[in-house]
Every structure is written in structure tokens, then in C-alpha cells.
User: What shape does this take?
Amino acid sequence: MPWETVIGLEIHVQLATESKIFSGAGTRFGSAPNSQACAIDLAMPGTLPVLNRQAVDYALMFGLAIDADLPETSVFERKNYFYPDLPKGYQTTQLEKPIVGAGNIPINLPDGTLKNVRIHHAHLEEDAGKSLHEGSFNAAYSGIDLNRAGTPLIEIVTEPDLSNATEAVVFAKKLHGIVTSLGICDGHMAEGSMRFDVNISVRPRGSETLGTRTETKNLNSFKFMEEAIALEVNRQIDVLEDGGVITQETRLYNGDTKVARSMRSKEEANDYRYFPCPDLLPVTITKAHLQKLRLSLPELPDARAERLQQQFGIAAQEAEIFAYNPALSDYFEVAAKACNDALLAAHWTTGEVVRRLKTASLELHDSPVSAAQLSTLLKRVGDQTISGKIAKQVFEAMWLGEGDADQIISERGFKQVSDSSALEKIVGEVLAKNPEMVRDYVGTEESRRKKKLGGFMGQIMQASRGQANPQQVNRILVEKLNEAIHSASG
Assistant: This one.
């Protein structure tokens, strides 16, 4: 039986405020446990919350960016449940009247089609703390770190509009690009700044009835999301085809072991006993304030992609990579303008720079090679001081902190050989050492000779330690081989 997949996402986006949503405690990542938790976060008697205005503005900016309905009034409620890292015994959140209503995020799929993903709503809420488990099985203990408690979040809830893992990842990357472009989230997924809960069900193709869904929680990378979806879809299909029944449950996925497991069963309706928070007034937003925020919005991914293509003439695929990553886009633009070769800058930024960052697990702001330093290297490729192959060796040395491009080129003698007499000598020596290759080239029909040049070029570049100017070498090589052809025919 053919099956179809139905996916909806719930995304927790940590807002990039200096303080928490209801207190003045800091939100810096990586601080010592409980060093950024004040009396309000600890739920001490007599404390009262004060709403963070910046968190409200950030939520509204997201709503404006996705052209969402923005109600004039939103209300905070208490969601009651027990968890060790939830000191108050409830989470302050929004349910009936969230700050952001229905909106839309269009995505471009790999096959070139455009798909609209509906946003059901986005609401403000506070994060919980974190349980830390240490020690061995026989001597284990747990501690509670409340640094995250009270950190401002918007939870973005989609409609079940996604059909497979590829669509989910494309959407997630688009959303990541939107919130980081807005500056409302730093986007550091490994630090928990964006966490995805994936609701998945399968049903017979053509059916209008949704299948029983499971929720896989707290996925903090695009790769893990893709893997978790594929694993869960296959699991559900296997269960159904074996005559089994899908149980509604919450699941976890371990990206290191590639194993998913059930966390807890989930009832059809959880009784969290929501009720309006008595300590927080309804939030009222004026049209004038919305207009002020609208005028302050920065360039968003779709607009950035279009501008980069028009301004720099780069390919749509590269423009889309930059559109989803504003920091990488800024890096590229600095390098492109400085070296005056946008195509070369785009190729190196999306290629060598991104590859190195991934390998080293670094964020762009930690890159050992700045955009200005890269531009100097690309200038030396452009003016033919070095070849593209040598440029990779220079970049490697720059990445390891051995100096700037000009210094490394000078100290290592990497300057490209462009002297015609020197190159003619190297080409002549290679041809003299390979008479059989020359005879084979001469005896090959003209339309196929171009493919034979690679063997000669490889040896010539090796003889010159990669420093020969490839364009000049190719011209000299063809001239000398043509002479051999004329000699043979004469």
C-alpha cells in the first residue's frame, strides 16, 4: 500500500534579549550553573514578574516578517505541570490569545516548485531549567541548573503542511534565516537557540483522515531532523504494514547513536489546567507601534537572495545559501567588493570557507580567516600571482594562523611562474620525456585531442610544483604539439 507522510512542526526560538522574559537575570550561554537565576526565576515567595518589552517587540517583528495576523491584545496564561526544573510548578505561556496569529512562509523546493507552509500561530513563553545527570549507574546524582529558566521563547506552530523530511529541512532553514536576519535569535542551534519538535503521522495515499501522530522532541540540527523524520516514517509504515497500531507518544532521537526511543505515552488531551496569569496584564499593541516596528525590519531572506543575484550576478543556488545565512552573506559581500570578483568570492565563501567551518565545528564569527583576508587571497588569484590550486594551500596556511596571503606566498615561493621562456623549457622537457604520449596525441583525430591534454598538464604542473600559469602552459603546450603534428604530416 502506498503511504503519504504528514508533518507539522513546533519550533522553540530563543529570543536574543539581554535579560529574561519576566526578570532582569542574564541570558548568556555557558555560564556556571545557577549563576544567572534570580529570585523571580527561583519562584521565591513574594516575587512578581515584569514583562520584557524587547521580547514582545521581537515576537511582533517575526509576525510582521511572515505577514501574520497580529491581534491587538494577547494574554499570558499559566500551564500547570510538575517537572524538577520548573520551580514554580507552572510555565507562563500563551494559549487562547497568542501574540502572533496565522501567517505564511513560502519555501522553494529542490525540484523548483514553490510551496506555502501555513503558520498556525506563535506565542511567547518562558523556558524551563535543565536537569543535569552525573556519575555512574551505582553512584549517580542529578542537579538542577536554572540558568535557562525564564529565558524568553517564541514557540512557532505550523499547520501539518509538510510531506517529507526534505520539505521539513528546507522550511527549517528558511525559518532559521528569517529569525537570524531579523536579529531576534542568534541561531546557534547547538546551544539550544532553536529546537524543533516534529509531529509525524502516515496514512494511505489519498486518504483524508490523519493518522495517529507521534512527536519527536528537541531536535537541534537540520541533519538530526532529517534523520529522525526518515527513521520515524519508516517505523510507522513497518508497524502498520505488519498489522499493528501506532501509539500516540513522545519520542526522542539521539543524533550520535542514530537511535530513536519512546519517551512517554501521550494522552489525547493533556489537562494542564491553563488559567489566565493573575500577575500579568493583557498586552495591548497599537497600530502606531506596529508601524514603527515594520519600518525597522531589516532585509529578509527572499529580498536578500534577489538583491544578491542582481547586484553581484551570482547563481540562484549561491544566493539562496547567503539568503538563509545573513552572517555568511555579509562575509561574502565584504570579500566580493574588496577583491572585485563576486563570482570568485561566492565560489570560495560557499565552498572552502563553509567546508572549513563545518570540519572545525566553528561559527563564522570564529573563523580564523576574515572576509578582508580572503579578499587579498582572491586578488592574487585574479591577478595570476598564484593559481587556484596554490590558493588552497595558501588558504590552509592562513587558516592555521601562519600569516596573511601575501606573506605566505612570499615566504613559500608560491608566486606563479609566468615567464614564457621558463614555461617553454618545462613543457619541452615533459614532452621529451613522454614520446609515446606525443605520438598518441598526434595519431588521435582532431576532435578528441583536447581530452589528451590533461595528461601533459598534470606532469607540467607537477614539474613546476603547481606554480606554472595554467593558461600560458596550455597555449605553449598546444603550440608545441601542433608543431609535432605538422612534423609528422610533413
